[in-house]
Here is the input.
Amino acid sequence: QVQLVESGGGVVQPGGSLRLSCVASGSIISINSMAWYRQAPGKERELVAAITRGGSTNYADSMNGRFTISRDNAKKTAYLQMNSLKPEDTAVYYCNAVVQVVGGLYERLFWGQGTQVTVSS
Here is the structure.
């Protein structure tokens, strides 16, 4: 019904930047919130940032202002701009979206497949 596809991950040196994208497609009536999470090896998945349809944002305290979430509703796309990257940012980054689907009575949460971000010298 609904697919989320992340892209933009890769290998970057400490202090570098990346911009991740998450494109939603399928039988979508509307998208409420979108969010980015990450999971490093041996650790639990953690929230990075979230954004509502109207553009209100929440960030995990550990991001310390280095990351910015945004969205383009016309393109059904969320972005995560990551600056001043550190080795501890290395993780698989996942996006999700709360979606009202065609023919559905309730909103559902969908997850993307993830994109790898590696910060290393």
In short: The mean pLDDT is 96.
